[in-house]
Amino acid sequence: MKTTTIKNIIHNNRTDIAFVIGNGINRYPNNPNALSWEDLLIELWHQVSLHTLSIRPEGISTTEFYDILELENVKDLNLQKKVTNLLTDWEPLTHHQLITEKIADLNAPLLTTNFEDTMSKTINCELFKIDDTSFTDFYPWSTYHGLEKLESPISGFGIWYINGMINYHRSIRLGLGHYMGSVERARNLIHRGKDGRLYSGKNAELWNGYKTWLHIIFNKSLFIFGLDLGENETFLRWLLIERFRYFKKFPNRKHKGWYLYKRNEKPISQGKKFFLERVGFEVIDVEEYEDLYVKIWE
Fold first, then answer.
1. Cβ(223)–Cβ(18) under 8 Å?
2. Could you tell me which residues come within 8 angstroms of residue 289 by beta carbon, excluding any fewer than 6 positions away?
3. Could you give the CA distance from residue 130 to residue 118 in angstroms, rounded to a whole number?
4. N or C: which end of the chain has fewer CB within 10 A?
5. 195 secondary structure, DSSP code
6. In this predicted structure, what is the pLDDT of residue 203?
């Protein structure tokens, strides 16, 4: 799809849009300082195991591999803290600033599956928490980087961290056990609590999770890019299924979705495309990574 068409999508939906960004933003353009999650896991393996391993073996997911890392951790190192140490010195590049400034200008929420604070550094964000919420450093879901305090996660620009944030190392979600914990916490907010349940339909603006980033997932159109969203992304995939199930129950509350990726010699897998389209996303390809991380934001 042409960049002008994608720009029009953003512009035409500017009052009802949130952005979901993955690690692709850090790896462009062939950034030598950015680790892929594969590289990160192998680096951790070198630090904890007595066995030599250069690549993740085929047939084990990244989340399962992390749990094996925990079992292999003969030195009893805190792996979540090790991850934050590896990411602390990451600095933003020009395209980080371009994208973050554009989203801030739109006054739209920004969700990321990344842990580091690279994007928040581009415009000198501060750390805020939605008022009247309890805090746990395992799940700081009401905490965000932004330019001002917000009444609600959907009321303006803020950077929210789906899989944990560098400020709280115990919040970092890497293993299958971590993801299952996130699913269980989200499930309790979405499905339990009588009238406070999201699916009760009675308090769409005041349900149990309305002061967390989960509120963005169910109440904004989502523009996803820089994110592989493979089978190992069990937590986010499950949330997208719940989101569409909610829209089926309450059609008048439905929001749009777009998933962008760079067209390669090998096309997007049929399974991923099938999944995304069935949960309400338009799948859009671009010609070059520059289109994804520069041109549509200019």
1. yes
2. 24, 28, 29, 262
3. 22
4. C
5. G
6. 66
**Residue 202, both tokens:** 């009675």
Q: Which of 17, 21, 222 is nearest to 105 (CA)?
A: 17
Residues β-bridged to residue 146:
126
How far from each other are the two terminal CA atoms of the chain, in whole angstroms?
16
- Determine the pLDDT at residue 195: 77
Alpha helices in the chain (DSSP H): 3-12, 24-27, 37-48, 62-72, 79-87, 94-106, 118-122, 176-191, 214-219, 234-249, 270-278, 289-293
3-state secondary structure (DSSP) of residue 134:
coil
Give the whole-angstrom CA distance, residue 276 versus residue 226.
15
Give tens-digit pLDDT for 175-208: 999 999 999 999 999 998 777 889 887 667 889 9
Instruction: Output the six-digit token pair for 2.
Output: 């042409």
Q: Quick check: 238 and 183 in contact, CB under 8 A? A: yes
* pTM as predicted: 0.94
What crossing angle do the helices spanning 234-249 and 176-191 adopt, rounded to 10°?
20
CA 138 to chain centroid, in Å, comes to: 16
Model confidence at 95: pLDDT above 90: yes
Cβ neighbours around 195 below 10 Å, total: 11
Q: 146 — phi, psi (to 5°)?
A: -165, -175
Beta bridge mates, 112: 21, 161
Cis peptide before 153 (omega within 30 of 0): no
Structure-token match 């980087």, residue found:
145
Could you tell me if 258 and 284 are in contact, meaning their C-beta atoms sit under 8 angstroms apart?
Answer: yes
Q: Among candidates 275, 223, 273, which has minimal Cα distance to 244?
A: 275
At which residue do the structure tokens 């250069």 appear? Answer: 54
CA distance 4 to 141: 34
Could you give phi then psi for residue 15, rounded to 5 degrees? -90, -5
Say whether pLDDT at 221 is over 80: yes
Rg (CA), the chain: 19
Task: Compute the Cα dihedral for 132, 145, 285, 12 and give only its sign.
Answer: positive
